[in-house]
Amino acid sequence: MQVSCAPAVLPAHFPSPPASVAANIQPTVMATTLDLVILFEDDDVLVLNKPGGLVCHSASRPGQTSLVVQLRDHGVTTPRLVNRLDRETSGLVIVAKNERACKNLGKQVLRREIKKEYRAICWGEFKEPAGMIDQPIAVTSGGPVYTKRVIDPAGKPSVTEFFVAKQLPGFTVVGLRPQTGRAHQLRVHLAWLGYPIVGDKIYGPDERLYLEFIAQGMTPALLAKLLLPRHALHASAVRFRHPDTQVPLMCQADLPVDMAQFIEEKSRCC
Which of 131, 204, 233, 255 has the fewest CB atoms within 10 Å around its CB? Predict the structure, then answer.
């Protein structure tokens, strides 16, 4: 697994990649739910690479662990998650280890000084190399999935910058830089744009697939429709200032093995 976390000059935005840039598809070893991959840690802050399938807070099913439980086992008495990821989303999570650090990092969040970048594998081939999605998001008022978010003029302002990282036959690897932090924002915005994330049970081919998954788990028939057992979304980079020293830090994590292998397989289809 290729990961890095080091002091860096913090620009206003992540620099746009050159046209020749491609997603790093070197196979990486995904951490198990019992093995945290920690990129950076000191007395104030910890940055880790969360595997897909691990819930951040209290697990809803008996016998399943959570990121918070694992952090306590690691020795962080009161883990304070500065950013949270959906259960199926993999990638970087910042953890404040004390109240002072939490307050400082919280202020950075409010001032939108923490910059995040994601990679996603989407259905379809993007026509535009880059762009901005500016569409308000709200919780759905009906439908079978009560947690689903929708584009709604009465919703909260939501903005996502995107760029094409790699084109594949029938799919696109995109880089995403959220300018706001709404629940399900990246998944909702990509689905609205017409390019839902591969493996997304709610915003993909049919939201009823999510209900089927809840009732039966991942079956071969369901996997044939989704192509991946989880949505292909990975928090790949984060920039922030250390809560004590104020030194700018940049952390990066390579694609997990499931996404890397999918890209490699589709690349061979060319």
Answer: 131
